[in-house]
Design a protein that fits this description.
Layout (H helix, E strand, L loop, with lengths): L1 H17 L13 E15 L12 E16 L2 E16 L6 E16 L7 E11 L4 E6 L5 E7 L5 E13 L3 E14 L2 H4 L18 E18 L2 E12 L8 E11 L4 E12 L3 E17 L1
Antiparallel strand pairs: 1-2, 1-14, 2-3, 3-4, 4-5, 5-8, 6-7, 8-9, 9-10, 10-11, 11-12, 12-13, 13-14
Length: about 300
């Protein structure tokens, strides 16, 4: 069942891209550096006074997004790097804690060398991916008095993921990429304060054994992106990552799917909607779903 869910998600990303007319390709890559950066701040706020009969809780929320790309091209070689930072907080009047709505740090680096000279669609590749978060994450529950308490669950590089491996990269202009790496090493790092805690049993903390700080895996990975424009100033980006660990339960494929819709109002104002679905049975034996939307300020380098 998990395999077919992965397969269907992959088709949703790959099929439209393969059917795209080749004439839609962007300009051919030019030797040298091509650097871009996008920064966005989204703000949400709601307020209710005591006379509002429909009920409601006043709240304020903000999300900061940054995406920086540093790409280099020289003859048959391409080196593409990206840094993604997302962070969001929300505070409700009746909640004693400010809570995170988003916390993501991700670095990607892919080196590709053309399989055939002059063919800029197929490359031998090597990729590196690193993911973590910036600040502490908590779980929340009420105590015997009905007061909400929180407990630290995660922290910076706890967990932290690093993946790397050789593979094959296929590109279709700048709107579609697919990188398949059949021999991918993955390292999961955690703080042993969590794996040594009495309420975490063996391999219950992101797959890392009790008292340990890391876990090594070897498997296959697939990473695909597909970006397209619906109408002028409205774009949709899709990113799908799959990973299967050869060493244990290879049928339990880890899934990370991210979709974002960007709506540009002008050079400085834009709206954004983010949807993310993650399946990783080392973390939670079910899909994790995240949605973020808002109107805010944006700036592009």
């Amino acid at each position: 069942m998990k395999f077919w869910m992965c397969f269907i998600l992959m088709l949703m990303v790959v099929s439209p891209a393969l059917s795209q007319d080749a004439g839609d390709d962007e300009n051919q890559p030019v030797n040298g550096w091509n650097n871009t950066g996008t920064f966005q701040f989204l703000f949400n706020q709601s307020a209710f006074n005591n006379n509002w009969t429909g009920g409601g809780t006043s709240s304020v929320a903000g999300n900061l997004n940054a995406n920086i790309e540093l790409n280099y091209t020289e003859n048959r070689a391409r080196w593409e790097n990206s840094l993604i930072v997302e962070y969001g907080l929300t505070k409700q009047d009746e909640d004693r804690f400010t809570r995170k709505t988003n916390d993501r740090i991700e670095f990607n680096s892919v080196y590709g060398y053309e399989v055939n000279e002059g063919d800029d669609s197929a490359y031998y590749s090597f990729f590196v991916n690193a993911m973590s978060q910036a600040t502490k994450g908590y779980t929340y529950k009420k105590d015997s008095l009905g007061i909400v308490q929180r407990k630290e669950r995660t922290n910076f590089f706890s967990p932290g993921y690093i993946q790397a491996g050789p593979g094959y990269l296929y590109k279709k202009g700048d709107f579609f990429t697919l990188n398949l790496a059949p021999s991918t090493a993955r390292l999961i790092m955690v703080d042993d304060q969590f794996t040594s805690a009495p309420d975490y049993v063996d391999e219950s903390y992101f797959g890392v054994a009790a008292g340990q700080e890391r876990r090594y895996e070897l498997g296959a990975s697939l990473n695909a992106t597909y970006n397209f424009t619906i109408v002028e100033n409205i774009t949709i980006g899709n990113k799908l990552s799959l990973y299967s660990n050869y060493l244990k339960s290879p049928g339990n494929v880890d899934i990370n799917y991210l979709a974002h819709i960007k709506m540009k109002v002008n050079d400085f104002v834009s709206a954004k909607f983010i949807f993310q679905a993650i399946y990783d049975d080392n973390a939670v034996g079910a899909f994790q779903i995240r949605e973020v939307s808002g109107l805010g300020l944006s700036y592009t380098l």
